[in-house]
Amino acid sequence: MQPGTTGEVDGVFTDPATEGEPLKSSLVVLDQDTTPAASVVAATISKIDADDDAIPETRRFEVDTATATAQCVRTDAGTRYLEITESANASETSEIAFTDLAVGDDVDVHGASIEAGACVLASTVQKYVVAP
Hints:
Layout: E1 6-12, E2 24-31, E3 37-48, E4 60-64, E5 71-74, E6 80-86, E7 91-96, E8 106-113, E9 120-130
Parallel strand pairs: 5-9, 6-9
Antiparallel strand pairs: 1-2, 3-4, 3-8, 4-5, 6-7, 8-9
C-alpha cells in the first residue's frame, strides 16, 4: 500500500471497541487505477441481459438503488466477483463467477464510468448474503 491510495476496507471491531483499536479486516480493495472511479453501492440487481455470458465483454446487468433505477453495469475479463457472507459478528469473502449473480441480489459495484450517464465498467462486483 502507498499513502494516498484509494481503497475500501470491510471488517469488524472486537468488543469492546476502544479508541485506536485496529480494524480486523477480511477484505481490503485498493484502487490502483488512475481513471475516475464510479461506485454504485447498496444496489439490487434488477435485470441481467440475455447476452452470451461466456464472453466477458458482453456481460451486462442493471441495478436499482434508493435514488436511481436501471443503472447499467458492464463487465469485462478483468472484473472480479466476490460473495460476502455476513453474520452478526463475522463475515467471509469468496470469489464467485458472473453466473452466480441473480436478479434480486444485493450488490456493490466499483469501477469506472464509461461515459456520462452510461454504463459503469465494473472492476469489482460484491454480492452480499446473510449467513444461515
